[in-house]
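TL;DR need structure tokens for one chain.
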Amino acid sequence: MQDRLFSREVGSLNPRDFAKTVTTDLLRSFALAQNHRFDGTSGRRAGDEEAQGEKIHDTSIRAHNGGANSLAIEKFDGKVMVSGGSDGSIKIWDLEANPNPHQPCLHRPVGTISRQRPQLFMEGHISGVTHLDFHPLKKDHFISSSFDKSLKLWSCTTSSVTAHYDIKAKVFAHAPSPISPIVACATQESNVRLVDLRTNSAARSLLASGGAVFSVCWSPRHERVLASGHSDGKVRVWDIRRALNPLGMLDMEDSLGIVHRFNHAMASGLGWSYMPKVREAAVAHADAVNGLTWTDDGNYIISAGLDRRIRVWNAATGANTLSGFGSTVRNSQFAPLHMIVPPSNLTAGCRELLFWPNEQEILVFDLHEGYVVSKMRVPGAYTTFEASPKNRITCMAWRGSGGRRRMLGPEMGGGTASGGIYTSHADGHIRVWMPRIHNPDELDEGDGLEGDDEETKKRKRQVLDDAYRSLMGKQITFT
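>> reply
TL;DR here they are.
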């Protein structure tokens, strides 16, 4: 760090590159923040007085009584988070309840939306919440979907529903367009349902075949383009103005892309209009595709399938970049998988990172090379034999700010926080992962060992003490 500070001061490293090197180091240093807990089951609300220090390490604390299925953090200020449970409940959290992220904090919900009875269907969900996301243009509204075949728009300030949309099919996931009030829904049917939040009904469908849709994701560069992942292993890329046929399908056997096919058509003299644009048997994965995301610059699409493969695609040509992520990848749940690619402006030299929820751990990959940068283990028993461990990760959310008209907040953290990734778990926990940054109040201890943990300090002191005793205890004789 000191040499980079010196390079910046003398002008050999410009401030933008210096900032990227710092944020790159921060992204590679994420670890579990054990002093941040979420208590949503005690019946207490935010502001209730209680000695938090006594409960911060209580393992019985849960954010949800059942499993926590989904998370979402608003991208404008990074202040508000919503979580959805398998019991149909939704909780609203204020992430700035503790002004100092270095101090222990026991978060309690500022609002709770309970599961409702069938006769009150227009209020809450009657089945488990499958996905949550914030309104693309209003930071005080969020969207929820559920197995009860509905999509709902909520107000954070009043914890009440403001709009209800009947999808008429189980909704596995949804994705709001980052710049328009249109929401794409992945349902148990093969079609992608489009909902205009300005109306009270599903607008239209993108027609496809091949089973359920598990994931949808909008292009951050082209406002009318989105990708959908299907149970037959296909990834279709759509222009929503053309509902009958997709623009194309990603093919795991195609590492050259559409530009190569165009050049081949011109060289053969057949003409581009006579060449098939998409191979009929094209599939992106050998099993269902349950995870999709774009890099925030729109250059790459990342897909994940139940074949335990992660693939990176050139969004401009559709070519498989052949990035390999090894055999450590685990993906076995027939449910949407949420992976995170931090904003590209935070990494130096186009070295984007991929945060992957590997069931009971988070793996940080180099997006293009595929090697593991770091690994973070979820507390609790770790097993490779159990099909669905209780502490497995069900959802991940990036905490950033300044994200208007963007998919993610390009600035790490919000308020006083330096950044964070929040995860929900099948056992009802919500956990926080933050970059390792020393508490400024602890930097003036003057012992010269402030960069080490307590065990390392103790070992160094013991070595120095032993050396001192061996020198002072030995009698020196002269001959």
